[in-house]
Design brief:
With 137 residues, the chain is mostly helical. The protein is built from four helices and no strands. Helix 1 runs antiparallel to helix 2, helix 2 runs parallel beside helix 4 and helix 3 runs antiparallel to helix 4. It starts with a helix and ends with a helix. The model has no long low-confidence stretch (mean pLDDT 87).
């Protein structure tokens, strides 16, 4: 399990570096369209994705029901955090500034959702394979 967490962390860092590079290049070429907070948003998304994968991995030692409940709870907390961030941006900034910010959050949400879904599936497969191997012994 510790090896799987290292793989997740390593691939998340590489993925985040790739997304961060794209964000900075877009910020350089489209400074009026892309919000200047994109580097910090990418770091926020990286941290929340890592915590969800870590929590799901830790819950995976128990049965599948606990794994599912923990993953859904962590995902709900993550979505509430993102909604609060979007609501705060819409409340404190004028629409011409807030709309690109909200769209950036939405794009990052979907990009990191794909990454997280891939790793959650790998965690689930690894845990079920380990459980099956343990049942055979």
């Amino acid at each position: 399990m510790n090896g799987l967490l290292k793989k997740i962390t390593y691939s998340l860092l590489i993925f985040t570096a790739f997304v961060e590079t794209i964000g900075i290049v877009l910020l350089y070429f489209f400074p009026k369209t892309i919000p200047s907070a994109i580097p910090w948003l990418v770091v926020l998304f990286m941290a929340t994705t890592w915590f969800v994968c870590y929590g799901a991995l830790k819950a995976g030692n128990k049965n599948f029901l606990i794994f599912s409940n923990r993953y859904l709870l962590l995902t709900m907390v993550k979505m509430i955090l993102y909604l609060a961030l979007v609501a705060l941006a819409l409340y404190t900034h004028p629409k011409p500034v807030a709309i690109p910010f909200v769209l950036t959050v939405l794009v990052l949400f979907f990009v990191y959702l794909v990454f997280e879904s891939y790793w959650i599936q790998r965690i689930r497969n690894t845990l079920s394979a380990n459980k099956s191997a343990g049942d055979v012994k």
